[in-house]
Design brief:
The chain has about 280 residues and is of the alpha/beta class. It folds into two domains: about 5-120, Ribosomal protein L30/S12 (60s Ribosomal Protein L30, Chain: A), CATH 3.30.1330; about 125-280, Alpha/beta knot. It is built from ten helices and 14 strands. Strand 1 (about 5) and strand 2 (about 10-15) form a beta hairpin. Helix 6 runs parallel beside helix 10. Keywords: Methyltransferase, Transferase.
């Protein structure tokens, strides 16, 4: 094993047996994330958004061989990784250099761009989420299993101007690297919390938030409900949908019309459709 050596004031790691690499790989496990209170953020765009949301990484791992000098990936303008690295140095974030071989082992995505940060997790108690103003909009996901779906819902929620996202009885955690990746880093920009379904329903009731739940078992279309005022839009798990407890608590149960042979939509797509109906109504 080769030990890290100074690179100016920064370290260089070229061995895949280095303990630092093992610590990075360990953060892919939920148990390690819960024990350390940390998670991984990879990529220029995701790290940049986290920084804009006030996140300060504990360490950033870089491989400048993977940087794009033109600030582009194919036809996409991704920005200059070197500029972001300078910003991190200005903030006195620890910078560790990895060889290409080590970075590619540490990376959890295809086509890494040479930036990987260790940051604090973002989950917070539900009681800490504030419901302010007459038009508060919450997205509630119950038992969503796939990190990619949870991340995609976060990205949509951010774009739609949602005020909070609550995971009820979550199967995955907010710090799952695939949640972070699929959310494009918006998990750091949105107020998020985890709770049991009972706790989430009590929180909504205490804050006078109406609950609209998506389900195929209703005749009411999602376009026939008023989404103005304080509203929570809820979606259930990929396999089973919303459970009876959530359905019984709903102010309205709504369905999205299906005209093909499939009898259901991807849960992230369902959330997006109903959220943007709320956006449409609120923009009148």
């Amino acid at each position: 094993m080769t030990n890290p050596i100074p690179f100016g004031r920064e370290l260089v790691i070229s061995s895949t047996a280095n303990p630092r690499l093992k610590a990075i790989l360990a953060l892919r496990r939920r148990r390690t994330r819960e024990e350390t209170g940390q998670t991984l953020v990879e990529g220029y765009e995701e790290i940049g958004l986290a920084l804009s949301a006030g996140v300060r990484p504990a360490t950033v791992y870089v491989c400048e061989q993977l940087f794009s000098p033109a600030g582009r990936a194919g036809s996409q303008d991704i920005g200059h990784q070197s500029d972001l690295l300078a910003r991190l140095r200005d903030d006195r974030v620890e910078v560790v250099h990895l060889s290409r071989q080590v970075f590619e082992k540490a990376s959890y995505r295809e086509g890494p761009d040479g930036l990987l940060a260790v940051v604090d997790e973002v989950d917070r108690p539900l009681a800490d989420l504030r419901v302010e103003g007459p038009d508060h909009l919450t997205l509630l996901s119950q038992g969503v299993e796939k990190p990619g779906n949870l991340g995609a819902m976060l990205r949509t929620a951010d774009a739609a101007g949602v005020d909070a996202v609550v995971a009820a009885d979550p199967v995955t955690d907010w710090g799952n690297p695939n949640v972070v990746r699929a959310s494009k880093g918006t998990v750091f920009a949105l107020p998020v919390a985890s709770a049991t379904t009972a706790e989430a329903l009590a929180w909504l009731a205490a804050n006078d938030v109406r609950l609209v739940v998506t389900t195929p078992e209703t005749d009411l279309l999602h376009t026939d409900v008023d989404y103005t005022g304080r509203v929570a839009i809820a979606v259930g798990s990929e396999k089973h949908g919303a459970d009876q407890t959530l359905l019984d608590a709903a102010t309205h149960r709504v369905r999205i019309p299906m005209h093909g042979k499939a009898n259901s939509l991807n849960v992230a797509a369902s959330a997006a459709i109903v959220l943007y109906e709320a956006v449409r109504q609120r923009s009148r």
